[in-house]
Amino acid sequence: MTAQRIDGKAIALKLRTELAAEVAALKTSTGIVPHLAAVLVGDDPASAVYVRTKHQACEKAGMVSTTHRLPATVSQSELLALIQQLNEDPTVHGILVQLPLPCGLDTTTILDAVHPLKDVDCFHPENVGRLVQNRPRFLPCTPQGIQWLLRESGINPAGKHVVVLGRSEIVGKPIGIMLLQKGLGADATVTICHSRTQNLAEITRSADILIAAIGRPEFVTAEMVKPGAVVIDVGVNRVEERLVGDVAFEPVSEVASAITPVPGGVGPMTIAMVLKNTLTAAKLSQTTTKQ
Ligand code: GUN
Prior knowledge:
alpha/beta, Rossmann fold, 2 domains, six-stranded parallel sheet, 10 helices, binds guanine
């Protein structure tokens, strides 16, 4: 069997085209142009690439995008002051603080400072709480991208056993919660595995849908995958200048029924969801008054 290759690039492009039309319609009807403010601290090259990619995608969709660059030596209070200024700026709808932050900065305090109505990453505890209670304001970008990819590929998780590898706050935990919820594109039976999980391969082999988000290059081998399973690879690992996922793509393709490539799978969807959430934030700014 050779798995269907899920083309995240094409699915993301289709969504971005739809978003561009919605952005244009919002501008016509209200005069509002969605504005994403990205905060980039330090000079991590991968973070700079991510922020530039998001910036270009915003502009292509007709949104405004500004990038606030600060040196790695910035103090916590200076960074908090910038976030406060962006919170109070009515022309800014979404705020994205690119992670990881340089050491010396308290990531939790800084992310908590982003106004919940501008929290396009869905990192604020109020938004995470709403997500857990199945009344989301925003959906976190990578998990939302995965759910969208499944739907666009005609894969319904309802009643399926979804196994998530990784319990991160950004991907593993929220995608587990989202696919567990009652509702369309969800209703799965979910197992979340991590570094202390015992009999890992036994669990992964029982997955109808396997989501790998552990940041270990080619960790998932063909022996860990049930024949016919759907495999979603969230990994972005740099190995000798090459981008490699968490899944051994070629051998697993021989076992799975569908698989996302790296690059060109989940990555482009994350970018598209930043735009989608910025549009949502712009619409929210019309209907909700900030404190
Ligand atoms: N760094 C890696 N992934 C992410 C993400 O989803 N959002 C932000 N802000 N930074 C990241």
